[in-house]
Amino acid sequence: MSAVLGFTCLFIGLVIVNAVYSYQSKHIDPAFGATFLFQLKMLLLFLPANLLIGYGVRWVQQCFGQLTTALVSAKIVELLVCLLMGYMFMQEMPTWKTWVGLLIIVGGFMLMKWK
Fold it and tell me: Membrane among the record's keywords (predicted)?
């Protein structure tokens, strides 16, 4: 249960953070003033997102017993969220090379956990 809750919190928190940055890159003028105002408005979203990510890492770490494993698995979740944001905001379809790269990363994670 702890792992499911941890990965759910990680996913939701990472979706919030990456959605804000993806929206900014597509719809906000890159001038400093417009970017600053947008980021100021988004501060209220970053607090719950950071809490979700922090507790997600904590619960995954408690489940696996190692912080390194929790952080690496959080990065894998973040890569999947980045693919989702790329599709949602930029209509970028992952290619076979993207999937092979992700499989290599997951394979490295499994090798790291192999005893």
Answer: yes
Q: How far apart are CA 15 and CA 77, in angstroms?
A: 10
Q: At what angle do helices 67-90 and 96-113 cross, to 10 degrees?
A: 170
Q: Round to whole Å and give the CA distance between 1 and 5.
A: 6
Average pLDDT over residues 69-78: 90
Structure confidence at residue 114 as a pLDDT band (50, 70, 90)? confident
The model's pTM: 0.86
For the cut 80, the answer to whether the pLDDT of residue 100 exceeds it is: yes
CA distance 13 to 74: 11
Query: Counting beta carbons within 10 angstroms of the beta carbon of residue 4, is it exposed (0 to 12), middle (13 to 18) or buried (19 or more)?
Result: exposed
Q: Do the Cβ atoms of 18 and 81 come closer than 8 Å?
A: yes
Using alpha carbons, list the distances in angstroms from residue 49 to 19, 46, 55, 115.
Answer: 11, 5, 10, 34
